[in-house]
Each structure stands twice: as C-alpha cells, then as structure tokens.
Write a structure and sequence with these properties.
67 residues, alpha+beta, four-stranded antiparallel beta sheet, 4 strands, globular
C-alpha cells in the first residue's frame, strides 16, 4: 500500500540497516534494526504510523544526501 509519508524503503540484512526515503526526498539510514521490524513495516497498512510508533525514536539514524 502506498504511503503519504514514505516514498521508498529497503533493508540490508547484513548490516541491519533500514533505508527510508520520505516523500520530501530526505533519506535516512536507521541502524541496528531487527529484520522483524522491517518486515512489520513492509506488512503495515499504514507505513507512516508504523514508522512513528516503532522506528522513529527507537533506532539511531543518520541523514544522508538526497537521492
């Protein structure tokens, strides 16, 4: 289901890094994210709500250059 907040996201199993590109084209890398969290985000009916509840303030992140 499309999100009004998140444009695209993917997950690197080796580094446990979740990359999220928001509709504003800001790109963030979230570190040490368990694969289960990624899978739940993927399955969520509301990506933005899941992100705000389970990812936003729970994992270290860094903003990278816009793509």
């Amino acid at each position: 289901m499309p999100s009004s907040v998140i444009k695209y996201f993917n997950y690197d199993e080796d580094t446990k890094t979740l990359k999220i590109i928001f509709v504003t084209d800001m790109v963030y890398l979230y570190k040490d994210v368990p694969e289960k969290v990624y899978k739940m985000l993927k399955a969520s009916g509301s990506k933005g709500r899941y992100f705000n509840s389970h990812i936003k303030d729970n994992f270290k992140f860094r903003k990278i250059e816009e793509e």
